[in-house]
Amino acid sequence: MSTQSLDAPTGRAVGGTENSWCRAVPGGTGIAVLAILTSRTPDVSRLRNALHKLQNSHPVLRSRLHSSPASNTFSFVTSPSPIIQIKSFNHSATSTILENLYGQETRNVTLTPLHLILEHELNQNSWIGSFSTENDMFFVSAYAFPGAKWVLVLRLHAVACDRTTAVSLLRELLTLMGNEEEEMEIMVNKGEVSSAIEDLIPKGKAKKTLLARGIDMLGYSVNSFRLTNLKFKDAKSPRSTQVVRFLINPDDTRRILAGCKARGIKLCGALAAAGLIAAHNSKCYADHQKKKYGVVTLTDCRSILEPPLSDHNFGFYHSAVLNTHVIKGREKLWELAHKIYTLFESYKKCNRHLLDMADLNFLMCRAIENPGLTSSSSLRTSLISVFEDTVNDDSNDQQKVVGVDDYMGCASCHGIAPSIAVFDTIRNGLLDCVCVYPSPLHSREQMQELVDAMKCILVDAGKNHGGEPIKP
């Protein structure tokens, strides 16, 4: 084999789920951003070397997304060598960006530099318009702030980055940016990106008859019209993604987690329940007036694929489960959390997260093409989305070594998405939730009130019988 062929780019067509993200991202949903606040001036040379090592280890990070206008299809084209560039903004450039971007609404609230830059990057859409040429899927920027503070941002297309990928990417980058003698060994992978999730599903796990598929798709379509949404503030103006964040102290976090453990459920059930209760209460319905809400739970499928993948297989390998719940008011957090989680778990045991994957992807693409199929053309698929598994981060010591003061990670949602998407992390015992929402479809004041209510509901539930086992 010639040297030329060895160094030639490789590639593969995108899978079904990846294709859905290729359709969604230009509209504003699926721009994954990891923003890191550091008190040390970035060593650009060391950072570039670390990023090159990450790209060598993970082919998807050195791939470009190619579109064929004739066939309306997408594919990965993977470079044999690193292709990353670091874009730097000095104090003046950073100030200009923020002054030009944020209006009176932002000036009336206190947002940290990290928060501001995260929102800015969530709305930097490198994938809008025609894919007449290959487009990078991985971007890195560094923003300078007064007081020797910097915000380092990694921005990726969703086909290259689900939440598991983002978590692994942060951990690997911090290790590589640590002391040189402690750098980890990274295997250079000159091959293609890993196979699409659909190609790795165990045989028979996603098999569904044509009749069953038609019935399920009809059911999803009809039920979507019956779902209750948060009040829309402005459904006509151009949209962007904004963020609200809430933190729960370690003592209250421990009580909430104890309450989940006592009932045999995961934190995602409690987060979703708090969201539904807070949303229902915000509408001021009459007592016991029933409303139906949608909850999307995202689950990482890596461990059940054939062959199984590890957290270091970068790409998008999550699937979604959509459940609906009727709320009539005065629900108790733990009772509703148990109901939400057990219904989700029953769906997983029946392989619905695999069986319905193609159906949900199809409906997602149809809604993107026809926004009028959703309420007020809002493209809202549910009230709230949560992740089945919470990220546990105990790397505070490692972060201090490289000067990391804080970080936030999430993905944009102002195209097709829920009204609020929760990205939860337990960081050294503290519950940290980054919540994204579409603006001005929802206002910052509206969403801040919602997450404040969610926080109060969770904390109160933890203090009141947080560790009490659920009654049969």
What do these coordinates show?
The chain contains 15 helices and 16 strands. By secondary structure, it is an alpha+beta fold. Strands 9, 10, 11, 12, 13, 15 and 16 form a seven-stranded mixed sheet that branches. It has a five-stranded mixed sheet with strand order 5-7-8-2-14, with helices on both faces. Helix 3 packs across helix 7 and helix 10 crosses helix 15. The longest helix has 20 residues. The chain is globular. The N and C termini lie far apart (67 Å). InterPro entries: CAT-like_dom_sf.
Features:
36% helix; Chloramphenicol Acetyltransferase; globular; alpha+beta; disordered N terminus; five-stranded mixed beta sheet; 472 residues
Tell me the major beta sheet. 7 strands, mixed
Q: What is the oligomer described by this structure?
A: single chain
Please give the domain count.
2
Strand content: 15-25%
What is the fold-level CATH name, i.e. the topology of the largest domain? Answer: Chloramphenicol Acetyltransferase
Poorly predicted runs: 1-6
CATH superfamily of the largest domain: Nonribosomal peptide synthetase, condensation domain
Structural class: alpha+beta
Tell me the number of helical segments per DSSP (H or I, 4 or more residues long): 15
Q: Examine the secondary-structure arrangement and name the CATH architecture of the largest domain.
A: 2-Layer Sandwich
Q: How many β-strand runs?
A: 16
Radius of gyration: 22 Å
Helix content: 25-40%
The N- and C-terminal alpha carbons lie at a distance of 67 Å
For the residues shown, what is the average pLDDT? 89
Q: Please state the overall shape, judged from the principal axes of the Cα atoms.
A: globular
The CATH class of the largest domain is identified as Alpha Beta
InterPro entries: CAT-like_dom_sf (IPR023213)
